[in-house]
Amino acid sequence: MTQLIGKVSSSGTVEIGSGFQSEKHSNGLYKVFFDSGKFTSTPVVIATPDTSDFSSETYTVSVSLKNVSTSGFTLSIENLSGDTKEAAFNFVAYS
């Protein structure tokens, strides 16, 4: 089994992990690129937002994954109103 664990900052940079690159495309929209050959089949990706940098108030956002493939995935972060929000996120990918 191949496994990859990472954390991406709200600005789109890799904070924790290796074997991937990341970038922020726009407010709340991020791309993660797996290193070439890392996965030979489409991995399962589980992602969670990290809103600890927001305020002391409870803040609810959700993540949506799109275009998951052997080369990476796209992730969007939205609040309950559907507005995209910048936030760090953690993920695990495995196949």
Biggest β-sheet, characterized?
A: 4 strands, antiparallel
Poorly predicted residue ranges: none
* C-alpha Rg (nearest Å): 13 Å
> Counting H and I runs of at least 4 residues, what is the number of helices?
0
> What's the count of strands?
8
The helix content, as a percent range, equals under 10%
The chain-level structural class is mainly beta
**CATH architecture descriptor:** Sandwich
Q: What is the general shape?
A: elongated
Return the average pLDDT rounded to an integer.
93
Strand content: over 45%
CATH class call: Mainly Beta
Series of secondary-structure elements, N-terminal to C-terminal? EEEEEEEE
Identify the quaternary structure here: single chain
Labels describing this entry:
single chain, 95 residues, mainly beta, Immunoglobulin-like, four-stranded antiparallel sheet, elongated
Explain the overall architecture.
By secondary structure, this protein is an all-beta fold. The protein has one domain (3-94): Immunoglobulin-like (Sandwich). Helices cover 0% and strands 56% of the residues. The protein has no helices and 8 strands. It has a 4-stranded antiparallel β-sheet, with no helix packed on it. It has a 4-stranded antiparallel β-sheet with strand order 3-4-7-6, with no helix packed on it. The model has no long low-confidence stretch (mean pLDDT 93).
